[in-house]
Design brief:
Rossmann fold, dephospho-CoA kinase activity, coenzyme a biosynthesis, 5 strands, alpha/beta, 224 residues, 58% helix, single chain, 11 helices, five-stranded parallel beta sheet
Length: 224
Amino acid sequence: MNFSRFIVGLTGGIASGKTTVARILAEQGVPIIDADEVARDLVEPGQSALEEIVSAFGADILDTTGRLDRAALRAQVFSVPADRERIEGILHPRIRQEMRRRSDIAVGPYCVLAIPLLLETSQKMLAGAIPDGSGNSQQEELHRVWRRGWGISRVLVIDTPVEQQIERACERDGTSVDAVKAIILAQASREERLAVAHDVIVNDGNLEHLRRQTMVLHHRYLHS
């Protein structure tokens, strides 16, 4: 990876406004590499990741066309930590590698990696690492992991009050309040994300409020 390139890691909880911020930046000519999109590409028929998932969880997680049935897989692994870790072990290294590859060839003033679970996956990487004896704080260690593993220069967190997350997710996805609350509890907390953020956009107002904050950071990133 070209570590001299300025790369922003965009993250936040469910229904926080990450996609909207990414769209605003894309309108300014900033290349957006989305982890969810990469993950979908990696489980297309014929991909090694899909073959490994089927081997681990059985053919019942495929639909009638041979494609991954995401709802079936989610229902199977979400409530079983060991299964969730297994699927993450299959997908996350591949996602990281493919995002690095795409960021190397992206054309634009800087690059954004949209990674909803950036903090969660990085915490697991740290938990499995051997301490280097440097005495660095977890925040410093996470920044080091993001720099070395993803090439990320700054982490941008989209922060939204939990009540608004629940309301937006229910309206957007048609899911129940309890289902959204379960997802929020499974993710890093607002406090954990804010503690490691370089930059924060507070999405608690209307679209214009969100756009103004995004453009302020965009102009700052252009001069980084």
